[in-house]
Design goal:
Elements: H1 5-19, H2 24-31, H3 35-42, H4 50-60, H5 64-68
């Protein structure tokens, strides 16, 4: 069975949360959202805004790069000086 992108990101988020031994209740409380919403994000049933991914990562002591890093083509922050010339998108290819 193939998993969707949202499911894969959710699994990664759950993995990072469990590495820190945080519960969904704790993360929801710290981010000001419900435990149910955390569960829905982790199972790929809800696509949160990017800012919520940032909030969850910061709350747990991670960066969004640590969450999305294995999906290099999804989000790679621009590096100063990159993005000019013919190879502008080369940094997105893993």
């Amino acid at each position: 069975m193939n998993t969707t992108f949202l499911e894969q990101v959710g699994q990664r988020l759950r993995y990072l949360r469990e590495c820190k031994r945080h519960s969904t209740q704790w993360l929801g409380w710290r981010c000001g959202i419900s435990e149910t919403l955390i569960s829905n994000i982790e199972t790929g049933r809800y696509k949160p805004p990017y800012s919520l991914y940032e909030d969850m990562c910061i709350t747990m002591g991670y960066t969004t790069r640590e969450l999305f890093g294995f999906f290099r083509w999804v989000y790679t922050p621009p590096v100063e000086g990159e993005g000019e010339g013919d190879n502008a998108d080369s940094r997105r290819i893993a």
